[in-house]
């Protein structure tokens, strides 16, 4: 039998869906929506470029399920069928060249910076760690009817995505957003049926998954992005993560994407990864290896992958079925094609200003890479040599010195 490599196709047998290779462009919030939170020509151009670049599956940046719950000013929102024409154009742009395009759907919960939304909601009114909290409004706990409404909104957005021509959806349950807050015993301190045991903390995601499946239909691929852990004291653990994935498998999830961390712990960008982890590139490889001992569900492993040998080795060991790539795709949108042709891939320098208290924050990664996405969306080439200190200057000009000051603690 031929050995599995990143070039091997993959079929979801129960869905009759085939991906031409194992490269997945992971979600990157584009920050490019219009003032009324819709996609336009810039986003279409960006996805056309990515589809041309060779990945088997593109996952969109998080699309919010409701206009009142934005994570960032430039978020796309899909909540009404009136806007479907624009989403159809997006779907067309991202599915040429035999490419799949899944929409990532999200609710930010309390991860809404001040100035973006009037209030922040969460499972419980638990503040962020000191230092970070000053950057966000204080969260209030959701009521039971509000929770039910959010579940329906996830389902509605998924059914609209399907009607628009997206070939799947991914529910965002990672990185400290609302679903991830429900899963975490630190952030979810409810005493009703939505909190307490992991079974209860999983209830919100379970209900969302079931509602999405029902609204989008049995043939439509539904994936979930989830943390291996959130790396916080008394937070969501690897054991709990494995429990949730087993449950989702039982419910019929089509694909799991593994990441980790939150705004408080930006481990998704490899912050604090050990030298031995960095050598194997993928930040969550060990977790994926252990997960795959207990589950058959197809896994996208995301975070840190850069070279073909590391990718092929993760695929051949069975730790992953797909390789998730985010930051490289913002600089070289044809990264998959480059890897497939086995051309050497350029090394992307780490985003470092030289100021350690800034460099340890996720915000610099987001700022620098968002600037690259903005260039691609205008049909320009990315600028890998763009100095991160200039990104910092642009960030400060846009948001003021408080962005840094407030996050410093
Ligand atoms: C600019 C930017 C925006 C991101 N937005 C999202 C997002 O909307 N949803 C998500 O799940 N992850 C998001 N991520 C995280 C990536 O999907 C990925 O997990 C992370 O960058 C690690 O993968 P990499 O090493 O290949 O970049 C974002 C990352 C960047 C750089």
TrEMBL record:
Q: Which SUPFAM superfamilies match?
A: FMN-linked oxidoreductases (SSF51395)
Q: Which UniProt keywords apply?
A: Flavoprotein, Oxidoreductase
Gene Ontology MF terms in the entry = FMN binding; oxidoreductase activity
NADH:flavin oxidoreductase/NADH oxidase N-terminal domain location is: 9-341
Which Gene3D superfamilies did the record assign? Aldolase class I
Report the superkingdom from the record.
Bacteria
Which Pfam families does the record associate with it?
Answer: Oxidored_FMN
Q: By what name is this protein known?
A: 2,4-dienoyl-CoA reductase
Q: Which organism is it from?
A: Marinococcus luteus
